[in-house]
Amino acid sequence: MLKYINKVDIKFAPFSPSAKSSRLFLARIMTDKARLANPNAIINTTVLSDPNEDPVINIIYRDGKKLYLRPGNKNIDEVLYIVNKYLRRLKEEDDFAV
């Protein structure tokens, strides 16, 4: 997943029920396998103290496109679908370029 991503900013209140998908997404991109795909990817995490604040995920893809996502009412599958939707297009372009 990180192969086509340059930067990820995640903001969430860890004990808020609406932050579950953000926590799971962070766990997914922090695995050794994911980090090896793009060791230069920048991952910033901001822990919010107010549990009523909405979690936010900001992603900058390799080609400069930005994704601003509010995952508060989404489950992890929906978050991954939204993030991977554009990743698939970048992968296809990469495959055709070779």
From TrEMBL:
Protein name: Large ribosomal subunit protein mL53
Gene3D superfamilies hit by this protein: Glutaredoxin
Protein source organism: Rhizophagus irregularis (strain DAOM 197198w)
Pfam families for the chain: MRP_L53 (PF10780)
GO molecular function list: structural constituent of ribosome
Keyword Zinc: no
GO cellular component labels: mitochondrial large ribosomal subunit
PANTHER family, alphabetized: 54S RIBOSOMAL PROTEIN L44, MITOCHONDRIAL, LARGE RIBOSOMAL SUBUNIT PROTEIN ML53
Stated family: Belongs to the mitochondrion-specific ribosomal protein mL53 family.
Localization: Mitochondrion
Main localisation: mitochondrion
UniProt-listed InterPro entries: Ribosomal_mL53, Ribosomal_mL53_fung
